[in-house]
Amino acid sequence: MFRRAQFRSGPIFWARTVQIALLCVVTAAMLGAGRSSFDRIGHELMCTCGCGQILLECNHVGCTSSAGMIDELRTQISSGSGETAVLQWFTAKYGAIVLAAPIRGGFDNAAWIVPIAVFLLATAGTFAVVWLWKRRSGGPPSDGTGGILAGAGIMDDGGLRERIRRETEY
Question: Which of 46, 94, 109, 166 has the smallest CB count inside 10 Å?
Fold first, then answer.
């Protein structure tokens, strides 16, 4: 017990406490806690040139769409529109294909719910089929004399062992 009390008041404890605090600060900074609304919205939109990349990360040469869309994004943000309004403006102009992820609400909830529901139903169905198969079969077929599958035309244990012995001789 003395050792635990000594650890909490010792220099190692305070060094570890400072290290954890610094780690928390760096983690918060790296997670984008200070990202601008331009950065957040730009990473929620897709480039419409067909490259399949996020708008602010579209890097292919000669992209005809990204420069204009980024200018439109700057214009919408500078006009004082909120993030939701900007996303709705882009959706109205380019269609729902411009969104990197569907907006939660309305029919778009299906894009979030259906894949999860299909996965859960498929898993439950698989378990049900395996359970039914296991319940129907009483184990491997046997002829009652210890010869597994002897009734199906496969020899009993003794004959099988003899055949294996013959085939593995030098």
Answer: 166
Bridge partners (DSSP) listed for residue 54: 46
Indicate whether 97 and 41 sit together in one domain. yes
147 and 156 in contact (C-beta within 8 Å)? yes
Task: Look at the alpha carbons of 145, 151, 157, 159 in this order and tell me if their dihedral is positive or negative.
Answer: positive
Structure tokens at 136: 């129907």
pLDDT tens column, 31-43: 755 567 888 888 8
**What's the predicted TM-score (pTM) here?**
0.46
pLDDT-based confidence at 158, cuts 50/70/90? confident
- Structural domain containing residue 52: 37-101
Q: Helix 2-9 vs helix 11-30: angle between axes, to the nearest 10 degrees?
A: 60
CATH number at residue 62: 1.10.8.640
User: Which residues sit opposite 132 in a β-bridge?
Assistant: none
- Cα gap 154→149, rounded to integer Å: 6
Same domain, 42 and 96: yes
Please check whether residues 68 and 45 belong to one and the same domain: yes
One domain for residues 69 and 50: yes
**Ramachandran area for residue 65 (φ above 0: left; ψ -120 to 50: alpha; else beta):** alpha
Number of domains present in the structure of the chain: 3
Q: Are residues 27 and 72 in the same domain?
A: no
Token pair, residue 120, equals 């859960």
